[in-house]
Design brief:
Layout (H helix, E strand, L loop, with lengths): L3 H27 L1 E16 L4 E15 L9 H8 L4 E3 L2 H4 L5 E3 L2 E16 L4 E15 L11 E10 L6 E5 L6 E2 L10 E3 L4 E8 L11 H14 L3 E13 L2 H18 L10 H23 L10 H30 L10 H30 L1 H38 L1
Parallel strand pairs: 1-8, 1-9
Antiparallel strand pairs: 1-2, 2-6, 3-5, 4-7, 5-6, 7-12, 10-12, 11-12
Helix pairs in contact: 5-6, 5-7, 6-7, 7-8, 8-9
């Protein structure tokens, strides 16, 4: 049986989770639902070293208000256009009317923004859909996942949030207008390839209250305690829109993996040096080890300082260990030859010669198995992710086509209804 303290802890966690979910659902019922569509108009340079990218994005944020509560002063022409179901422009709307006060969470520096507002009549629900058109240019921070470098796929995201809490604003992806990307206007086409589909993720973050320990007044302490109780369950809604880019890995395969392979393969040539010249074997092997280490540091200059190894790092380290084992073996066989012969004079068919050949076969077999394992891993892990991304692209095209067909049917049905 479980201890009573464990059961009590589990029940308390369950009750806390239930209370938070109920609180969030009640807030959603009262809050304004803001539907967001984001289009990547242009993707600029992707800076792997500094973990940022440049982009030009367009954000459309829509929310509905009752027709009776729409108090914006429209001209007669705009009123006629609105009644006909067409979109009308709203100048200086944010200065006098409510809007969700959106901002970009992962923006870097000063983003260049242009904001416009428009309104359109929704005849089905008898509401007015207010649309905020936000045009943004600038740099965005992105945490790059480099475990599979150079065959990695990076998500380039824009996180949108509001100054209001979830009791006022809930951000969600627009179900009627899909987010998209312009793949033609891409600067780094030589280094990256963009996928067509777009992923959206809705999440919530807790609000944190910063307090100082210098308050000596009891009134201030009581006020701070009251503010803490009011904000401990408050959350902000965040919508993250992500496109995906796959690195063009051919350059790194030829100039990274291939060169490391050739340098390591060169070390097997030391077994062709006669056993009478074992000192020369050690000299060549140590030179190849230092060359591999220098080459690895050169490759790592193009990557940020990370706490884990990339696939290129793992391959390079395995090859360096292979070279070190070669050097250790040459030292061992040198001691054996010194103890068993006179002045390293090893005969052609002696047991030391066969022992050295056996070591060569073991090392070379390990080298072959290493590369077979690497090829299988690349096929089953990084390249599998790329195949999954292409499948998502296919499903995304199908959804877009279905949406277009549905829109055409609605237009035809509306025209027929108008004629009759």
């Amino acid at each position: 049986m479980y201890p009573m303290s464990t059961i009590t802890t589990g029940l308390s966690k369950f009750q806390t989770t239930t209370i938070e979910s109920n609180l969030l659902s009640s807030q959603i019922d009262k809050a304004t639902i803001v539907r967001i569509r984001l289009v990547f108009l242009r993707i600029g340079e992707i800076d792997t070293l500094n973990e940022k990218y440049q982009a030009h994005v367009s954000i459309e944020s829509r929310w509905s208000i009752l027709f009776e509560k729409f108090s914006y002063n429209l001209s007669s022409d705009d009123q006629q256009r609105l009644n006909n179901g067409k979109s009308v422009s709203l100048e200086k709307y944010s200065q006098s009317y409510w809007h969700p006060q959106l901002y970009i969470e992962n923006g870097l520096g000063d983003l260049k923004e242009q904001i416009k507002y428009s309104a359109k009549l929704n005849k089905e629900n008898h509401t007015i859909d207010i649309c905020e058109h936000r045009d943004i240019k600038g740099f965005f921070w992105e945490k790059l996942e480099l475990q599979h470098f150079p065959s990695d796929i990076q998500g380039l995201s824009v996180s949108i949030t509001s100054m209001f809490f979830t009791d006022k604003v809930i951000l969600t992806a627009d179900p009627n207008y899909f987010s998209g990307i312009n793949r033609e206007a891409f600067v780094d086409q030589q280094e990256w390839s963009l996928y067509e589909h777009i992923d959206t993720k809705q999440r919530y973050i807790n609000e944190f209250l910063f307090q100082t320990n210098d308050d000596d007044d009891d009134d201030q302490d009581n006020d701070n305690q009251q503010i803490t109780n009011n904000t401990e369950n408050r959350k902000r809604s965040i919508l993250t829109v992500t496109c995906h880019a796959a690195r063009q890995s051919e350059y790194f395969f030829w100039n990274g993996f291939c060169l490391i392979f050739l340098i390591t393969l060169l070390s097997f040539c030391t077994f062709g040096i006669p056993l009478q010249n074992l000192v020369n074997r050690l000299q060549v092997t140590c030179t190849v080890v230092l060359t591999s280490i220098t080459f690895r540091w050169t490759v790592n200059r193009s990557l940020p300082t990370i706490s884990y190894l990339t696939s290129l790092d793992k391959y390079g380290l395995l090859c360096i260990f292979n070279l070190i084992f070669h050097a250790i073996w040459h030292s061992i066989i040198s001691v054996i030859a010194w103890e068993s012969t006179t002045n390293y004079s090893v005969t052609k068919n002696s047991w030391i010669m066969y022992l050295d050949r056996g070591a060569f076969c073991v090392f070379f077999s390990f080298f072959i198995i290493l590369h077979i394992g690497m090829i299988i891993w690349f096929y089953r892990v990084p390249f599998k992710l790329r195949r999954q991304m292409k499948q998502k692209d296919d499903r995304y095209r199908i959804l877009i086509q279905e949406k277009k067909n549905q829109s055409i049917k609605q237009i035809v049905f509306t025209d027929l209804a108008t004629q009759f």
